[in-house]
Amino acid sequence: MSDSQLEFLKQLREALPMAAKIEDRREALLENSRDFGQLVGEPVLPLAVVYPQTVADVQNIMRLSYEHGMPVISRGAGTGVSGAAHVTGLCIVMNLMQLNRIIEIRPEDEVAVVEPGVINYDLNEAAAEFGLMYAPDPASYKMSTVGGNIATNAGGLRCAKYGVTRESVLGLDIVLADGRLIRVGKNTFKGVAGYDLTSLFTGSEGTLGVVVRAVLRLRYQPVDERDVSIVFPSLEAAVMGVQSIARARVQPAILELLDLPTIRILDEQYQTDYASRGGAMLLVRLDGYGAEKEETVIREAFSDGPMTLSSSGAPEATQLIEMRRTSRGDTKDDAYRMGEDVAVPKSLMAKYVQELRKIATAHDVDVRVIAHAGDGNLHPTLSVEPESGENPLIRLSEALEESIRVAIDMGGTITGEHGVGLIKREWLTWEQSQDVIQIQHDIKSLLDEKNILNPGKAI
Amino acid sequence: MSDSQLEFLKQLREALPMAAKIEDRREALLENSRDFGQLVGEPVLPLAVVYPQTVADVQNIMRLSYEHGMPVISRGAGTGVSGAAHVTGLCIVMNLMQLNRIIEIRPEDEVAVVEPGVINYDLNEAAAEFGLMYAPDPASYKMSTVGGNIATNAGGLRCAKYGVTRESVLGLDIVLADGRLIRVGKNTFKGVAGYDLTSLFTGSEGTLGVVVRAVLRLRYQPVDERDVSIVFPSLEAAVMGVQSIARARVQPAILELLDLPTIRILDEQYQTDYASRGGAMLLVRLDGYGAEKEETVIREAFSDGPMTLSSSGAPEATQLIEMRRTSRGDTKDDAYRMGEDVAVPKSLMAKYVQELRKIATAHDVDVRVIAHAGDGNLHPTLSVEPESGENPLIRLSEALEESIRVAIDMGGTITGEHGVGLIKREWLTWEQSQDVIQIQHDIKSLLDEKNILNPGKAI
Ligand SMILES: Cc1cc2nc3c(=O)[nH]c(=O)nc-3n(C[C@H](O)[C@H](O)[C@H](O)COP(=O)(O)OP(=O)(O)OC[C@H]3O[C@@H](n4cnc5c(N)ncnc54)[C@H](O)[C@@H]3O)c2cc1C
Ligand SMILES: Cc1cc2nc3c(=O)[nH]c(=O)nc-3n(C[C@H](O)[C@H](O)[C@H](O)COP(=O)(O)OP(=O)(O)OC[C@H]3O[C@@H](n4cnc5c(N)ncnc54)[C@H](O)[C@@H]3O)c2cc1C
């Protein structure tokens, strides 16, 4: 450690009260050195991990880091899957998990005010006492933080109906690169005073400021929920099924698509046997006062043909949704397996999957797909056997790149909900023009002229 | 006209094809010199009004204006109510009403691609052929343009359920101050690649770029719609009614609140007699598969007590919603009447109206209120009789300012949906800190360093 680094740490300790823990044990450094995204090479350790307990702590940390030009990676639960929280060079990690109070829930305003380290699940538990919910529900909701959800503009299962994180964020308190605290947005559902800085910070992956407090819109817990699982003979048929549901003008709360390889994995994990029944599955949740009618409409829509529907009221479909929710990502991506996150216009989902399979075959890699089908957001997982054939890693990366290019060619995006992070930065230049990327860099420089906020990520 | 102005106009004519009309008749200049917002003093005429027919026209206009440092006010239908389209000095007005093609509707993607001059109503008509709708519906929807709606992030009646304009804007083509064309956002429902520039341009009131094309999310037309009007003895009771509906976990598509003076105006305009029945009214629209159940729930919630409900299926409530939709703003604000647009946390609506009445009494001005009650967005209209008492205009402006300060003190905003424009710029400094305002000016400078895009507005 250099003298200036030692000096920085010394000043950091002095600037913070006892309660704000500073960690430099190797174990803690390692744990905070990366997220769930693929890591190329060895992990890089941060200089230290700081756990601010108050907003003032965050301000002090940023003030000092600004003075010293020390990069800071804000970190929630580290469940990100695009390497946005990866350490890549000299920096400290500011772990916000202990800044985790639910400041207030105002049930009559349908609003919650929280610190960033609150776990998504905990907020939902607290809101449930008032018959309310915080709608954005990434599959990581039992682990990930609201601050991380905001910084990635996380999606989730029920965002087809209720919108992504951005749609639930009314206002934010942000600590800027130099330690100043600002408040953007509003306390109310609507508000158009000035530019929409709230949306600018939402999804900016810790590169523009640190979220230290959020005013969130809550929604009514649905009075009724009905789950239906539908097994189709093929993936194409399941995608047609998505269109049928749309044509029936039903807006499900959840509409998940699973392909055969994914079903097989669930079968293995949960000792079930859905794979024998067909080639793809839709998991549908209908909610609210219309749920009963919508269930009827959907059952009618799929009454003839080779589909198998779960019986009404049986726990099966609900279990499957839970399985789907908790199935993915238990293991991190590694060199031989990459999870993707493209989104394409809804009508092109079947075509996209066909292309994907062609690509997989051409490069001799495996592919499985789950999709937030209501949004056209697909999560293909491409993988190779480490020992198989020639240059497995090259085959994998070629297949991956082609799969991204095809999505872009179809008018899609490289990332529907996971963010650009570190891993998708190059692909961003495939999707966006140089002018658009330049504007983002200019905004970044404006707010972080020393480039200390999670440098090298997101844009 | 100075030589340089003449030279600019000459070059403008040369740069544009015949089809792109340039107007300098006084009548056209006058018509394009202001919006529906209050005008202080005499109208200022622009140098010329240009009607681009193509995106290339817009680029040429901006390129030339950039070279000459000529300010440009983008203009849709001019129905704005905050003076955002007012001419305040030397400039040209770029009227986008003729750039009005619906480029495509992709029903299976639930997406429309439009030019900015398309009238909101026309887009809805076109979408209806596919059983779809464009949800944002400002009461001006028969006149206002989609481009203007985007530039103001317009709200509307059904945004409590379906969100404001921003929630329906997926991607934008923007012509920048120097004439460059960029594409931001996405074609898909979800997408988090890079910073959210789409939201930055949405609501920026023509100060950051010109919207020349928009990819919009459409929603399903509801399979069922049920309207209920409820007359309450008092405004306080009606606001309690809003809470009762929320507690019943019903999310109406429309939930409008009318106070007694507003009801009297409707009565006058439509020869009805609702004023005799009570002191305030809620207009409720329930839609979708749950509408029938929701209607039952609402009727039960208000079954005892002094409320009068329209009978089920009767045309009355629907007519009232139409009346409400078309009642306001037929006449522009003037010196003696100011329409406001605050939003407060939902639970404080009743308290806010009480304060408002106190303020009105104290300053001897009249007040009436309508509200998008589902959002906590209130439109008080304050007015004085020109001949009444001492200094009517001072009384009005003092009452107005107090009404704004009280909204801010309650955690509200100066503008729920109309925008800051010219008229609310000073108030913005009451709501937002100097740091936050500075960031917005910095972003403005970044994108428009010559300050030619609708200068002096929005921030
Ligand atoms: C099993 C599993 C399932 C998942 N399912 C989904 C899903 O359905 N939808 C989805 O969108 N994502 C999903 N993800 C990805 C991930 O959970 C989300 O991106 C989540 O929002 C990250 O939250 P986090 O608290 O873990 O943030 P982290 O991973 O710690 O950080 C993510 C980014 O946010 C920044 N950040 C964190 N906190 C702050 C803050 N307070 N201020 C500023 N910047 C901050 C970090 O610097 C980093 O750039 C899943 C991940 C896993 C492992
Ligand atoms: C009767 C009436 C009812 C109304 N009801 C509502 C309501 O319910 N909800 C609501 O939110 N508003 C309402 N308004 C206000 C107004 O209709 C909205 O603000 C509307 O969005 C303005 O659209 P426009 O086409 O008239 O835009 P204009 O008034 O022409 O312009 C508004 C702003 O947008 C900019 N602009 C316009 N087009 C573009 C473009 N293509 N690119 C860049 N900038 C552009 C202008 O420079 C200006 O700053 C109402 C107004 C009236 C008169």
From TrEMBL, chains A, B:
Q: Name all FAD-binding PCMH-type domain ranges.
A: 42-221
Gene3D superfamilies, from UniProt? 3.30.465.10, 3.30.70.2740, Vanillyl-alcohol Oxidase, Chain A, domain 4
Q: Does the keyword Transmembrane apply?
A: no
State its cofactor: FAD
Q: Which UniProt keywords apply?
A: FAD, Flavoprotein, Oxidoreductase
Q: Name one Pfam family in it.
A: FAD-oxidase_C
InterPro entries in the record, alphabetically?
FAD-bd_oxidored_4_C (IPR004113), FAD-bd_PCMH (IPR016166), FAD-bd_PCMH-like_sf (IPR036318), FAD-bd_PCMH_sub2 (IPR016169), FAD-linked_Oxase-like_C (IPR016164), FAD-linked_OxidoTrans_Type4 (IPR051914), Oxid_FAD_bind_N (IPR006094), Vanillyl_alc_oxidase_C-sub2 (IPR016171)
What protein name is recorded for this chain? FAD-linked oxidase
